[in-house]
Structure formats: structure tokens, C-alpha cells
Amino acid sequence: MKDWQAAASALYDGGFRPMFINGQWCESQSGEVMDARNPATGALLATVPKGGAGDVDAAVAAARKAFDGPWSKWTPFERQALLLRIAERFEAEWENLCLSDTLDMGMPIQRTLANSRRVLGMLRFYAGQAVTIHGHTIPNSFPGEIHSSTVREPVGVVGAIIPWNAPIAGSVWKIAPAIATGCTVVLKPSEEASLTVLMIARIMQEAGLPDGVLNIVTGLGSEAGAALAEHPGVDKIVFTGSTATGQSIARAATGNLKRVSLELGGKSPVIVCRDADIEKAVPVAAMAVFANSGQICIAGSRLFVAREIHDEFVRRVAEFAANLRIGHGIDESTDIGPIISARQAERIAGYLAIGPNEGAEVMTGGTRVEGADFEGGHFFHPTVFGGVTDEMTVAREEIFGPVISALPFDSLDEVVERANATPYGLAAGVFSTHLGTAHKLAHRLKAGSVWVNMYHAIDPAVPFGGVKMSGYGREGGTEHMEEYLDTKAIWINTD
Predict the structure, then answer these.
(1) Assigned CATH class of 4-264+469-490
(2) What distance in Å separates the CA atoms of residue 358 and residue 389, rounded to the nearest whole number?
(3) Rounded Cα distance, 207 and 202, in Å
(4) At the topology level of CATH, where does 269-459 sit?
(5) List 223, 297, 475, 483, catalytic entry
(6) Best CA proximity match to 352, nearest among 406, 399, 304, 315
(7) Half-sphere exposure of 275 (CA within 13 A, CB side)
(8) Euclidean distance between CA atoms 83 and 60, whole angstroms
(9) Measuring CA to CA, which residue among 436, 446, 354 is closest to residue 397?
(10) How far apart are CA 143 and CA 305, in angstroms?
């Protein structure tokens, strides 16, 4: 077993980590810094620049210069080769990338390491997509030698804002399609987890990424993030995060009518039918929420269970939850790591108090984890609420913590109506051994992704995104490439 503690000490020593603009590593214009702390211990990992509007201006200018300059001359095959080199460098440094994520935002190391197929797959998938961009020759209704065709062109400068819960995958999901299409990027990571993103910039630079194609501005969302969203030099904004922030970004983007893609919050239903394979469904339904301590937008936090099996199923989910190992992320045996910050921990604690006050029954968990091993961090026992009704706060609002709300149902029509009775529509899960039931539910649920007898599956070739208040636009698949491309019609009279 690898000595992750020794590796952690070698990776971050509390020193300063500059941000990345136009191929240069630099401080913020104000000279201010922010602390990056390990959420498991509170220990200082490093300091990073607290960037602001001036830094965003510099980064957007660099991105525009690169877009209008040499980068625009790169062929699709050259961009493909670059992405493949980046994939090779990622693979060579995968353990350091994963350790950085674990230290900076708390995800257990065994989970970050397991993301290699997805992340490396994304880089190689978009490398393949880079050489498939094409237009069409289109017959038209005009007489004579008038030819019409289309070409696909990069949108331009992309402003990307990502959350703290998956920095590696979140960054690559924004950067790789931009490189594939010939766009340039200014990326603002979360102030809660910036370190891995800076490591990614260094890796991409070493792989041969030209200056200005990728720029990283660290800072607060209310300052650097807001400046990026409203910047007139940005042609497109892509954002992953809360619905409230997404709404603010959409409003800010109206200044120059920049294109917007939003992947926002969710309150995803998981439906367990009476004919479900209980042995297989229990651990999957539980980890649909407890993975990454519930800090995941697609968490299946509303667990609808057929009344005939409800009590047994919920009891077994609670038993499964009670046996999950809680600990620091660098311990390979850890199942449940820390919550990202004191602010988020207080938010979760508030919901854990609201549940019983509104009549929910604590089947397991419901409290913070105490003890000397957990001092300085923010840990919660995975929680299962029984006796939940649809109108309860814990059944309606996104908690973003390790909390399941279990609800019984009596018929498929009923559960579809209840599952869809939410402003969100990001994901859903169905457990049934009956093919017809699975198909009917999958088609009737209002969600961007529906998993049947599984959960959390995400593949570079398959589109991902939400409906309703969970956002618009897609990441993954050929649909993702469309988000970074404009279509131009060309008419030529050859007579």
C-alpha cells in the first residue's frame, strides 16, 4: 500500500501557488492571497492568489490574443495530437493529481484513483472528436450556379467556472472540448479547491499547450467569477454549480448575449420497484448519495421504495450506511470523507435538525462525527431519514451532504408524478427486474440522465446535463462539441 501521507507532505508544504495567465505563473494584481486547507484536518496546504476583475481582464486579453493569433492556425490533427499528449501526461501524473484532489477537497483517494477511466477517456474522446468537425454542402432553391454550404467554427473565448467537488473531471470537461474545437479558455476554479486545477495547467503547458489557450484565475466567485461571467470579451460561459449561482450567471451574460451552458443542482429520485433485486439495489441506492459524502449534483437523495418492500429495503440501506468507514481521504479504506468547509457543514447540520423537527425519523446517522481523529475537519455520519413525506424540507431542497430521504409509494403512476414534482431535473434512478417497467419509468421521468439498475455511470461519449432548473446544455458526447461551435452559412454565385 502506498504511503499517501509521505506523498502528501511532499506535494504541498504551505507555500504559494501562483495562477496561470498567458503561459506565465503570476500573483494577483492586488497581491492578496487565499488559504487552501485540507478539509479533513484544517491544515494549510498552500496559498493561492485572490484574483479579481483586473486579473480576469488580463486572462481574457491573453485568451483573445491566442484565439486570433497562432492558435487559430492549428489544424484539427494538431489539436488532436496535443490532446493525446496531454492524456499521456495525465496518465503519468495520475496519482499526484488524485492526491491533490483528495487533500484539497476531501474525496477519498480510492474514489479519485478510480476516475482514471473517465478522465483519461475524456481527453482521448475529445481528441477523436477534434478531427470530425465538418460542415455540409446544402442544395438550395435558387436557379443557376449558386452554391450553399456550412462550416463549423469555434465560438471563441470561453469562460469556465467549476465547483469544488470534482476538480480533475470538472476541469477536463470544460477544457478538452475547447481545445478540440479551437477555442481558448479562462477558467475560474472554486475558491474551496483550486490547487489541482493549477497542477492541470502545468501539465498541459508541459504537453505543449500554447500560451494563452488556457488561463487560470483563482479567486472568489463573487469577484473573479462574477467578472468573468459578465465580461464583454467572453463569447461563451460554461458553469457547473448551484442553481442560484447559475441564475446569476445567466443574467450577467446578457450584457453581450454570450452563449451559456449551465449544469446546476438536483434533487434526484431513485425509484425501487417491488420486483427489484434487493441484494444488488441496496448498495447502489445507498452510494447514489453517500459517494463523495453526498457532495455531488446527481445524488439520488429521494429514495422512493414500493410499499411492499419499503421497510426491509430502508432498514438494509440504513445498515449499509452505518457500516461505511468514515475517515481522512488519504486512508485507502475510507468510504466517507470530510465535508468541504465549515460553512457547508453548518448547512448540512441545519437540515439534520430540520428533518426530525418536521417529523422525519432518523434511521441511522443524523450527527457529526466526533473524536480526536476528526478534529479540525468536518465529518458527518451517513444519514437515512425514514417517515419522510413529499412536503418536508429534506425531501424538497438540495442538501449536498450524506443524507437520504426515504419515501414509500403504491403505484407507478403515483411515483412518477411525485418524482417529477420538483423544480430540478438532473438525474434519476430506477431499480426493477421487469424490462417493461424499466422502460416506462425511464421515458416518463423528467431528467437529463436516467440509470436503470445502476447509478453514477458517466462516459465521455454519452451526453450529460439537466432539464428544468437543473440547467441547459450538455457535456459529453457529440452534443458537447456543438456547445463550443458556431455554424456559418456560405453562399457562392459561380455564374
Answers:
(1) alpha beta
(2) 9
(3) 9
(4) Aldehyde Dehydrogenase; Chain A, domain 2 (3.40.309)
(5) 297
(6) 399
(7) 9
(8) 22
(9) 354
(10) 64
Contact 349, 368 (CB under 8 A): yes
Domain boundaries, the chain: 4-264+469-490, 269-459
Identity of residue 435: L
Angle 18-23-27 from CA coordinates, rounded to 5°: 25
> Side by side, which strands form the sheet with 449-452?
361-364, 383-386, 403-409, 302-306, 269-272, 427-431, 449-452
Q: How many residues does the chain have?
A: 495
What is the rounded distance in angstroms from the CA atom of residue 223 to the CA atom of residue 359? 40
* SS3 assignment, position 238: strand
Distance CA 188, CA 201 (A): 12
Burial 199-235 (b: 16+ CB within 10 A, else e): bbbebbbebebebbbbbbbbbebebbbbbbbbbebbb
Tell me how far the alpha carbon of residue 379 is from its chain's centroid.
21
296: Cα within 13 Å, side-chain hemisphere: 26
Active site residue 183: no
297 is catalytic: yes
Residue 101 is inside which H or E element, if any?
helix 94-105
Residue 392, all three cell numbers? 418536508
Residue 42 dihedral angles phi and psi, to the nearest 5°: 80, 0
What letter represents residue 202's amino acid? Answer: R
Entry pTM: 0.95
User: Residues 320-377: pLDDT tens digits?
Assistant: 999 999 999 999 999 999 999 999 999 999 999 999 999 999 999 999 999 999 999 9
Shared fold status for 4-264+469-490 and 269-459: no
Per residue in 176-222, pLDDT (tens digit) is 999 999 999 999 999 999 999 999 999 999 999 999 999 999 999 99
106, three cell numbers? 476531501
Q: Is 336 helix (H, G, I), strand (E, B) or coil?
A: strand
191, 192, 223, 263: which is the annotated catalytic residue? 263
- CA 139, chain centre distance (Å): 41
- Rg of the chain in Å (alpha carbons): 23
- Please give the grid coordinates belonging to residue 160: 469556465
Handedness of CA 183, 189, 195, 196 (dihedral sign): negative
Q: Is the pLDDT of residue 2 over 90?
A: no
Query: Percent helix, strand and coil across the chain, each rounded to 5?
Result: 45, 20, 35
SS3 of residue 487 by DSSP: strand
H-helix segments, 264-369:
278-290, 307-322, 342-357
